[in-house]
Amino acid sequence: TQLLEQSPQFLSIQEGENLTVYCNSSSVFSSLQWYRQEPGEGPVLLVTVVTGGEVKKLKRLTFQFGDARKDSSLHITAAQPGDTGLYLCAGAWPGGFKTIFGAGTRLFVKA
Amino acid sequence: NAGVMQNPRHLVRRRGQEARLRCSPMKGHSHVYWYRQLPEEGLKFMVYLQKENIIDESGMPKERFSAEFPKEGPSILRIQQVVRGDSAAYFCASYRARETEAFFGQGTRLTVV
Questions:
Q1: Beta carbons of A41 and B42 less than 8 Å apart
Q2: Of A79, B60, B76, B80, which sits most exposed with the smallest number of CB within 10 A?
């Protein structure tokens, strides 16, 4: 059972376009992380969101945690080829340490 | 994330052999997770360990797979009598106690021939 649903699964866009990817669940998480993974490498942490409704910005990336702490979105403005990779969201269960990962959104930005 | 060290980076085993994958967590991290990733897929949870304890192994097959995190030394994921279906990338992530941010190693790519 996939408890964290990520959409879309795959996204191919032109350089300069904007995009949003989503991470949805029916469960409440104490925190949610976004990671980016490049081919042949391990995932690298981008951001952690903790508070419902929280918005965090990382240069051209904007992360939002849903008010109910069940979902999150990642918006990229003016995508660049260097943004290409697999974007994974991960949720931590309240009161515990177990973290589950979504299946990821594979982004390809064409020059 | 050079702090989490996994070795080997690549491992080739014949069917029926044993595979041992090692993970040295970041300094000060006492929690280790192992994940498996098939090509073009996300990460699948296998096992969660703290020093000398298995906390959650619900994602690990009951046969042939075992994991440990001894008091001294790296965490080991051991796969006995490997089969072709075990071919995958295996990632280790370490955490500091009571935190939820994972720091990943570069993974071990296991190929069973």
A1: no
A2: B80
Q: Say if the Cβ atoms of A101 and B43 lie within 8 Å.
A: yes
Q: Give, for all 111 residues of chain A, the pLDDT tens digit.
A: 448 899 999 999 999 999 999 999 988 988 899 999 998 899 999 999 999 999 999 999 999 999 999 999 999 999 999 999 999 999 887 766 667 889 999 999 999
The answer to whether the CB atoms of A97 and B45 lie below 8 A apart is no
Contact partners, residue A85, CB within 8 Å, separation at least 6: A36, A37, A38, A39, A106, A107
A88 closest CB neighbour out of B40, B42, B98: B42
Q: Closest Cα of chain A to B53: distance in Å?
A: 14
Token match 């296991």: residue?
B110
